[in-house]
C-alpha cells in the first residue's frame, strides 16, 4: 500500500496534466470515456466527495470551532464574489444562454477539493483552506440551487428543489460518510492506507468527469472556444484577485490572504459539470464550459500556488 500512497501523491502533483490528457484522449477517441455519463457520472462525483470526506478528522472540526470568524468571512466572500462575477462577466462579454449557465454553475459551486493542496503549495494556511472547503461544501446543497434560481432561473428552466436533493445525496452524504469513517477508523493501518490513496483516486475521477464531457461534446469546443476561454479565465483570475484583497480588507495575514485567494478562485468545477449534465442535459455549451473550467482551475490554481511559493522564497520568507 505504500506504493499506492506514493502513486497517489504523484497523481495529485500532476493533476492538471492528467485532466488535460484525459480531455485530449476523449476528443481523439470518444469511446474511451463515453461510459462516463448518467448514473456512472453521479457515482464518480460521489467518489470525489467521499475522498474529500475521508481527509476530514477531529482536528479539522476543532479548527472550525476555533476560527468561526475566518471561516464565515471566507464562505461569505466565496459565495458572493464568484456568483456575481459570473453574471457580470457573462453580461460584459455578451455570452450565450448556454455559456452563461455554465459560468454561473461554476460560480455558485463550493470550493474545489484540490484547493487544499494548492494552498499548501502557496505556503498558505492549510487548516483555513480545509475549513473553508468543508463549510462551502456543507452549504452548497442550499446555496447553489438558491443562487441558480435567482441568477438564471428566469432564463433557464430548472428545478431548484431537485437540485437541492441531488446535492445532498452527491456532496453532503459522501462527505459525512467519509469523515465519519475517518474519525472512527483512524489509526487502523488498512484505513490509513486507503486514506493516503484517496487523493489520487479523486484526481482520476476528475479526469473521468472531464473526459466524459469531452467525449460527448468535445467537437463543440471550437464553436465558441475563444469567448469561452476568455470568460472562464477572467472569472477565475478575478476570483483570485478579489479573494486576496477581501482578506486584506479584514486584516488577514499573508498566509490567510493567499488561502482566501485560492479558495475563492478555485471552484469545484467537476461538481458543476455533473450538475450541468444532470439538470441541463440540452445545453451542450454549459457542459463544455464547466468541463473546460475544471481543466483551467486545476492548471491556474497549481500555477498560482507555485508563484506564491516562489515569491516567498525570493523574499526570504519561511512560509
TrEMBL record:
It is a multi-pass membrane protein. Gene3D superfamilies: 1.20.1530.20. It comes from the Bacteria. Keywords: Membrane, Transmembrane, Transmembrane helix. One of its GO terms (cellular component) is membrane. This is Bile acid:sodium symporter. It is found in: Membrane.
Amino acid at each position: 500500500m505504500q506504493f499506492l500512497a506514493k502513486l497517489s501523491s504523484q497523481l495529485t502533483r500532476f493533476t492538471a496534466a492528467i485532466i488535460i490528457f484525459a480531455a485530449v484522449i476523449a476528443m481523439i477517441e470518444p469511446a474511451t470515456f463515453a461510459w462516463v455519463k448518467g448514473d456512472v457520472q453521479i457515482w464518480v462525483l460521489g467518489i470525489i466527495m467521499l475522498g474529500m470526506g475521508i481527509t476530514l478528522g477531529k482536528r479539522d472540526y476543532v479548527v472550525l470551532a476555533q476560527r468561526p470568524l475566518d471561516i464565515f468571512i471566507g464562505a461569505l466572500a466565496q459565495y458572493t464574489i464568484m456568483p456575481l462575477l459570473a453574471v457580470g462577466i457573462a453580461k460584459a462579454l455578451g455570452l450565450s444562454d448556454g455559456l452563461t449557465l455554465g459560468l454561473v454553475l461554476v460560480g455558485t459551486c463550493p470550493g474545489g477539493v484540490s484547493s487544499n493542496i494548492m494552498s499548501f503549495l502557496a505556503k498558505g494556511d492549510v487548516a483555513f483552506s480545509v475549513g473553508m472547503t468543508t463549510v462551502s461544501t456543507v452549504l452548497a446543497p442550499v446555496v447553489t440551487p438558491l443562487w441558480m434560481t435567482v441568477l438564471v432561473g428566469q432564463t433557464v428552466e430548472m428545478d431548484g428543489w431537485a437540485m437541492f436533493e441531488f446535492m445532498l445525496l452527491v456532496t453532503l452524504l459522501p462527505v459525512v460518510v467519509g469523515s465519519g469513517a475517518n474519525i472512527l477508523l483512524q489509526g487502523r493501518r488498512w484505513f490509513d492506507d486507503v486514506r493516503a490513496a484517496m487523493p489520487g483516486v479523486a484526481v482520476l475521477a476528475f479526469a473521468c468527469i472531464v473526459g466524459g464531457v469531452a467525449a460527448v461534446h468535445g467537437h463543440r469546443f471550437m464553436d465558441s472556444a475563444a469567448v469561452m476561454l476568455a470568460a472562464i479565465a477572467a472569472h477565475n483570475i478575478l476570483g483570485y484577485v478579489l479573494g486576496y484583497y477581501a482578506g486584506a480588507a479584514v486584516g488577514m495575514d499573508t498566509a490567510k490572504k493567499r488561502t482566501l485567494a485560492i479558495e475563492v478562485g478555485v471552484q469545484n468545477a467537476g461538481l458543476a459539470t455533473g450538475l450541468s449534465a444532470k439538470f441541463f442535459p440540452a445545453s451542450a455549451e454549459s457542459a463544455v464550459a464547466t468541463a473546460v473550467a475544471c481543466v483551467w482551475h486545476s492548471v491556474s490554481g497549481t500555477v498560482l500556488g507555485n508563484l506564491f511559493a516562489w515569491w516567498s522564497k525570493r523574499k526570504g520568507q519561511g512560509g
